[in-house]
Design a protein that fits this description.
Number of domains: 1
Largest sheet: 4 strands, antiparallel
Strand content: 15-25%
Radius of gyration: 16 Å
CATH topology: Jelly Rolls
């Protein structure tokens, strides 16, 4: 089976078996070539750019930022055995993960609690906000928005699916 990125002008850049935190120029593709190209190639994705942009703008307002807009996007393709190392997205305010392909064997998305006092003190009882990680079991079509400064990745969990495909987006 071919990859979701097959035929994309930036195919060489957007496919990787071990995804590591992006360095300037690594895996980053300008937003219009990735999203708009996919909208043209896959009818089901038409309107994706406008829809995601609106959600990111609204979420940015919830975080206290006015006029947040998408700045770049890239495609992460994880193959069996690959791990997405925990990382943050510097110079961004909002990040998003849009799941194109994921199944029950796909690695999960872990978001690290930035205020994890649980390493220092044990409360008498736990509440919903007392966690070290929030874990998401992705399914195709999921769009997960989060502040760019939140550490995230697949933990130490290696991907077991044939391929897990995510379009990642940054906004400032």
């Amino acid at each position: 089976m071919g990859s979701f990125c097959d035929g994309h002008p930036y195919q060489r850049k957007c496919q990787t078996s071990t995804v590591t935190p992006a360095q300037p120029g690594d895996y980053l593709l300008d937003l219009p070539p990735v999203i708009e190209d996919l909208e043209v190639r896959y009818a089901a994705l038409r309107g994706l750019t406008q829809g995601v942009a609106g959600l990111i703008r609204d979420y940015g307002r919830e975080l206290g930022f006015d006029n947040v807009s998408m700045t770049n996007s890239w495609c992460n393709v994880q193959y069996p055995g690959s791990v997405l190392k925990h990382h943050v997205h510097p110079n961004s305010k909002v990040s998003a993960a849009f799941y194109i392909h994921a199944d029950d064997k796909s690695s999960k998305l872990y978001l690290e609690n930035p205020n994890s006092f649980l390493n220092f003190i044990r409360p008498d009882h736990y509440t919903e906000s007392m966690f070290e990680f929030a874990k998401f079991n992705p399914v195709p079509g999921d769009l997960i928005l989060f502040p760019s400064w939140i550490k995230h990745g697949s933990g130490f969990e290696a991907n077991q699916s044939d391929h897990r495909i995510v379009i990642s987006v940054n906004a400032s």
